[in-house]
Amino acid sequence: MAKFALFLGCVAPYRYPGIEKATREVFKALNVELVELEGAGCCPAPVVIRSFDQTTWLALGARNLALAEKKGVDVMTICNGCYGSMFEVNYVLAHHPEKLKEVNEVLAKVGLKYNGTTKVRHFAEVLYKDVGVERIKAQVKNPLSYNVAVHYGCHFIKPSRIKNLDDPERPRILDELVEVTGAKSINYKDKIMCCGAGGGVRSRDSAIALKMTEEKLKNVKKVNGQMILDVCPFCHLQYDRSQKDLPGYDIPIIHLSQLYGMAFGLPKESLGLDAHEVKFKL
Amino acid sequence: MAKVVEPNPEFTKKVENGGPGGETLMACYLCGTCTGSCPSGRLTAFRIRQTIRRAQLGLKDEILPTEELWLCTTCYTCVERCPRMVEIPDIIFILRNFAVREGYMSEAHKKIGENMMKIGSTVPFGDDMKKLRASMGLPAEPPTTVSDTKAMEDFRKVMEITGFDKLMKGGKK
Known about the structure:
The structure holds two protein chains of two kinds. By secondary structure, chain A is of the alpha/beta class. Chain A has two domains: 4-123, Glutathione S-transferase Yfyf (Class Pi), Chain A, domain 2; 142-275, Rossmann fold. Chain A is built from 14 helices and eight strands. Chain A has helices at residues 11-15, 17-29, 46-52, 54-71, 80-95, 97-108, 123-131, 133-137, 160-163, 173-179, 201-204, 206-222, 233-242, 256-263; strands spanning 4-7, 34-36, 74-77, 120-122, 147-150, 184-185, 227-230, 253-255. In chain A, the strands form two sheets. Chain A has a four-stranded parallel sheet, sandwiched between helices. In chain A, helix 3 (46-52) crosses helix 4, helix 4 packs across helix 5 and helix 4 packs across helix 6 (97-108). Chain B is mainly alpha-helical. Chain B has helices at residues 9-16, 33-37, 39-43, 48-57, 77-81, 88-101, 107-119, 127-135, 149-161, 164-169. Chains A and B meet through helix 1, helix 2, helix 3, helix 4 and helix 6 of A and helix 3, helix 5, helix 6, helix 7 and helix 8 of B.
């Protein structure tokens, strides 16, 4: 099987390292080789970079893609934000040769060139399509029985016109990936709604982001969800940290890599769940 | 008395040519599916259809200084449902780029930009995190811009060549 350059992003390695650790362990168990992407920087975040200046966004994204291209491997992200940002950078550069030329003029000054050959993959997509449910099932040593509320986040499936991964209104990929472990993916109101953090709303107007998050928490609570599952450290952070200001919900948050860590029987310490704001009392 | 605002076709053109997706602006026929789908609009006064209409009319001053422009979480629900395939979040990014050029940027966003210039990350990275990483058997510092001086210099250089550093100094709000 192809190997991938693990793109860490910002929130996983610098806020929730358990997600990074669990990802490394889970892919090792599944026999998928992950190599380091030395010198990688922020994806870059759409929040400030794309909102502030699209040329900077393209150039910094292309820098990361060029680093992977030089190694001859595709990039695998563990975050919807990184996935969305770099996937779209790649898409724009593939369809606008004049932009690729402009970006390469910038990259030349730091000794890089991007030819447009790197593919950007989301780790859940790799799990679903490349590894496959059967091979994952074979690793489940500790079957789970929780009621899990899946949160897709926005930039995994959408915009579906260019990503073509799943139905944007009724996606199934993550539900299937969760149910492999024995856990039940429960249905809840506004399941595909945003967590509220994206687009710079969390940093600029946290009260409004919080209102959106509370909507989601309320809906999960109503159907007795025991945890919220994400595939994005930024959604993860929003749900976990917001509960400091939204007492009474007490719903722990888990990244898919951490859920697999549990199901694969990895040592609890390697999942980093104790470092979360909302503790697992399951 | 009702305020009369004149359309500004010049600004409309600038939005259409402002980046990928801008060319779809005039395809909008104002059905409102976007506003009806918007999670942010559900809780605030942000009306994405109104922003798009204003952009069609080139009403720059009714868009660029507003808070609403920054209430889009870029969730892409609108673009999934738009019957005219208008690239709504792309247009939001184009409008935000113009707003920033006029000096409209929040302190919170500038701080993120400054952190990017400093360590190549949106969030700071302190000793407590390094300790936590090490305790989990991870390298205290990952092999990214936070630990690689040359990579960080390159990252910063890219931001300087594209003028991001100067852009950050232009803020007035």
